[in-house]
Amino acid sequence: MPEPTTTAVRESVRATRIPVSQPARSTAVTNRSTLRLMCVHAHPDDESSKGAGTMARYVREGIEVLVVTCTGGERGDVLNPKMDRPEIQENLPRVRSEEMARAREILGVQQHWLGFTDSGLPDGWLPDSGIDLPQDAFYLVPTEQAAAPLVEVMRSFKPHVVTTYDEEGGYPHPDHVKTHEISVAAFAAAGDPAKYVDRGEPWQPLKLYYNHGFGKARIEALHYAMVDAGLESPYKDWMDAGDWTRDKSERVTTRVECAEYFEIRDAALKAHATQVDPDGFWFAVPRAIQEKAWPTEDYELVESRIDTRLPEDDLFAGLR
């Protein structure tokens, strides 16, 4: 596994210990079948484009995986021209729910709808843009309130590891930003018996990760692999622009090998037919090139309640 270049990730990470007053039920894991992973996403389809290979691998290792989907994707656009038909547009919430069900079955994961309403993505929206969102938008729900049902799911499912988006949501979509906010809040609150007292018995997840997908290092690797193969790279414009000011590649701490599960990942993504054109960007790089040039999915460990050493090649490092 390539080692990230930052000094911080070469050092051992001493865990922040769970306070004595909190239950320590999840601090010792001796049976692989008891391990549980929760992946928190904003919309149906996000689970299949961010970490799907990782989930498929862990499911097939006997680990329980739960996808939490915060919204129904009701205000999403139909991005596949083959699906842009009146009967699809008129029934988009139902269609996207059915797509999620198919993707869930392909990945082999469990899935839970958190029940919030898609905020949409107005042109030019940023957290400080002042652009209005619909009154029922997920983004507008106060974080403490929106985190409550996620805390309840955490306490019920009892994950050892949680993944979500970084502070910018991976990209500036209001639902992705809010998903980050409630995931961080719920991770902090789930093990505290004084918080959300009506939402189940406390349970403290042990590790929190951010997904990192389109970093400079990965894009360059795939781009040059395509060029070397004599193929047109879908990343040419990105490379020509050369603007990496928001790149977070050096924040990656954990690279999970999952190339043999890319076929499952791709099948799950194609199940979201309204969102993904099978002839479009997502599938422009042949799978064989991806498997060789970048066989991992990448994460940033942002909080750990156990000792671990970075870099990692397993989200459950320190737990097995």
UniProtKB/TrEMBL annotation:
GO biological-process terms attached to the record: mycothiol metabolic process; mycothiol-dependent detoxification
The UniProt record lists the keyword Chaperone: no
Gene3D superfamilies xref list: LmbE-like (3.40.50.10320)
Cofactor annotation: Zn(2+)
Catalytic activity: mycothiol S-conjugate + H2O = an N-acetyl-L-cysteine-S-conjugate + 1D-myo-inositol 2-amino-2-deoxy-alpha-D-glucopyranoside
Protein origin, superkingdom: Bacteria
Residues in the signal sequence: none
Pfam families for the chain: PIG-L
Entry GO MF terms: hydrolase activity, acting on carbon-nitrogen (but not peptide) bonds, in linear amides; zinc ion binding
UniProt remark on cofactor binding: Binds 1 zinc ion per subunit.
EC number: 3.5.1.115
Swiss-Prot/TrEMBL keywords: Hydrolase, Metal-binding, Zinc
Keyword Translocase assigned: no
Residues where Zn(2+) binds: 43, 46, 176
Subunit (UniProt): Monomer.
Xref: HAMAP family: Mca (MF_01482)
Entry similarity comment: Belongs to the MshB deacetylase family. Mca subfamily.
Function text: A mycothiol (MSH, N-acetylcysteinyl-glucosaminyl-inositol) S-conjugate amidase, it recycles conjugated MSH to the N-acetyl cysteine conjugate (AcCys S-conjugate, a mercapturic acid) and the MSH precursor. Involved in MSH-dependent detoxification of a number of alkylating agents and antibiotics.
Protein name: Mycothiol S-conjugate amidase
